[in-house]
Every structure is written in C-alpha cells, then in structure tokens.
What we know:
- This protein is 46% helix and 10% strand.
- It is of the alpha+beta class.
- Strands 3, 4, 6, 7 and 8 form a five-stranded antiparallel sheet that branches. A three-stranded antiparallel sheet has the order 1-2-5, with no helix packed on it.
- The chain starts with 44 loop residues before the first strand and ends in a 14-residue tail after the last helix.
- The relative contact order is 0.10.
Amino acid sequence: MCTWYLEAVDAEPVQSMAVPLSYSERDPVPGGCNLEFDLDIDPNIYLEYNFFEISIKFAPANLGYARGTDPPPCDVGMSQDSRWRLRYDVYQYFLPENDLTEQVLLKHLQRMVEVPQVKARAIKVVTLTANDKTSIYFSSLPVQGVIYNVIVWDPLLNTSAAYVPVHTYACSFKAMEGDCSSLGRVSTKVFFTVFALLGLFICFFGHRFWKTELFFIGFIFMGFFFYILITRLTPIKYDVRLILTAIAGSVGGIFLVATWWRFGILMLCMLCVGLVLGFLISSVIFFTLLGNVKVFRDDVVFWITFSCIAIIIPLVFMGCLRILNILTCGIIGSYSVVLAVDSYLYTSLSYITLNVLKRALNTDFHRAFTNVPFQTTDFIILAVWGMLAVSGITLQIRRERGQPFFPPHPYKLWKRERERRVTNILDPSYHIPPLRERLYGRLAQIKEFFQEEQSAGERTPLLL
C-alpha cells in the first residue's frame, strides 16, 4: 500500500492529480543515481526560468533491479553493464495558446506521464548520453504554457521509464506588474501600435513617400542597436529604455532623411534598406529548425552566418533597386503589424526577431533551444502577414509603372529653384524679402504688440 502526502503553501484550494505507474525490474529507475537533490531516488525535473531562457535539471537514472535487492552501483566503472549505457530523451509539449486555465493544464499533463503518450504527442528535442550534463536550456516563452519530460531508455534491454513532468508559463500569476494575465506592458503596446501604423503606411505607400520610408528604416536601424547598447550597459528600467529607444530611433530616422536630402547618395540609402530586409530574412531562416543545429551554438559561427545572409540580400538586388525597395516596404511594413498583434495576443511569429534580440542581449542564450509552438492563431496571423505583404508589393509595383525609379536629389532641386528665383524678376517670389529679414520683421511686430502705448502729453489746439 502506498500513501501520498500533499502540502499547499497557500490557504486556497489546490487542484492536484496523481497517476500511479508500475515498472518491472528491467525498466530503468529515473533519478536512481541522484547525488545533487534531496531525495535518495529523485525522479523529479527541476525548472527555473528568466526573461531569456528556461533551464531544466534532473538526476541521472540507474539500471532496474528486483524488489528487495540492492541497486546497482552508480559510479563503479563505465562499462555497458552499468548506468552509463542509458540514454535520455528530452521532450517538449506546448499547451494551447492563450489558455491559462488549470483544467487545460491538468488535462494535458496526463498526456505527458506515460512513455507511449509522451513519444506520441510531444516533440523530442535532444538525446543525451550518460556522459552529458543532465541540464537543458530552452528559450523562454512568457504566457505560453510548456510541459517538459525526460524518458530514460536502456538500449540493451530496450526498456524505458519517464520522469515526473514539469510545466511553466515563464511568468508569475501573482506579480503586481507584468503578470501572466496581462500580456505586455502599456508602454510596449503604445510603442508597437504606433510602429505598426507607420509600418502599415510604408507597406502600401512607402516607395511613393520615399522620405517617410527612409525615416522608418533609420528608426529601425538606430532603435535596434541603441536598445541593445543601453540594455547591456545600463540597469535602467524597461519603460525608460523603450522611451529612449523611441527617441534614438527618431534621431536615426531624421539623420537618414537628412543625409539623403543633402547628399542624395542612393546606394547608401538602399544599402540600409537592403540590410533591414536581409536582417528579417536571416532571422526567418534561423527561426526554423536550422537555428537548433549544433554548429550554430557557437556565437562566432552564428553571427558570421547571420551577417553574410543579411549582406547577400542587398547585393543580389543591386541591379534592380526599385524592386528591392518595394519588397522591403511590403515585407518589413507588414511584419510590424505582427509585432503589434503580439503585444495584445500571443503569437510565435514575434520570436522571428525576438530570438535574435535575445541572443544579442544575453551571452548564454546560444545554448538554448528555440522551439516555439505553431497553432491556429499563428496560422491566421501568418496568413494576414502574407496577404498584407503581397497586397502592398503588388499595389506599389502597379502604381509605379512608368514613374521614375527614385525621386531626384532634393538639395539640387532646392538649389536650382533658389537660383531661378534670384535671376527671374518676373517670378513673384523674387520680390519676397530673404528669410532673415522676414524673421526680424516678425519679431519687431511681436515686440510692438507687447509694448505699452506712450502718452502723447498736452497738445495745443491748432489756431486758424
């Protein structure tokens, strides 16, 4: 007969679930060689999380043995007759998106208890040998429920046993600010909503309004690098960082527009435009299973490959700059809508760029597996993103037929117009005073308005 004891920290009622499992003497014993945690035989998985990553740890297993006999020694020899022949398969199971109820959690936990169900329903992330460390890292997905489990397998006897599953939402249900029920901060929602409105305009009209697009591209460039810089170098709060990022991004956008207005270097502007598109395409490539390939765990290999992909995009399109510009407007502008949706409703598509940002901010993120769920909400948002991008690109290509590829150099136009006004006395603008004289005249009028009227004194009537 077995007896379980449960203890709840809080006084509120707690739902619990117990699933008894039976194993034979041939099955391995999960946690049977525990040397780190409290229990002698500890089949539990220990989980910790922060904003960047989730870590799970478990005790090594031991070989099976008959009831009433002594367990095999854990650290005597490393032959195939010892626990060193065991293999550990780590599984990941995603709960339904945007559902934080206890009923759903308990229902899906039952599917992650027995070995056949775990293998049928969950995703196998990695297989560890007895020589590997029994700790695995995953990308943190706030508000998205995830269940982890480990199956220990004896290749000699072809038997398996499961550890006790563990789950997390990577957020706190009791936090005063930023808890699981409130997805995203107010500052994040405001920032990405404004960003999405501008991006939506760029998606459909970016090529026609060239300077507005340059501001958008400069904002992305400066804002991205500035946020990484202040996050790594300063401990200021998130809301302040976001405000400073918005200011720095605006400065970057104005600078790129001013550079085009004064110098008119088209290739420099298009290089910035192409790099932003290359950044997103490179992020999409590493968002796939390619991002979990072992060779890209090395930061040097990852960043070199990532940068090469980003640089190749503008080089490929150097012969057709207008197509490159319209593609960037459609794809980048429509993706800004995806980021805005993520601040209100969880979607895995935001992690296309968020994973890259996490890797740039955290030096240990390279060891994390970046798997994300792809469920109904994600398919809908992916379809919306695709329709917006295709619609924007098609509309701009059709509208720009027969038009100049790019607008002329603004500074040259302004200089030519100024010279024309100086030499053409028939132009009404020729008789307009210079700007400096007009400003001085306006200031003089303002001063006179605030001056009191002086008394004229006594006057003698005019004698006729």
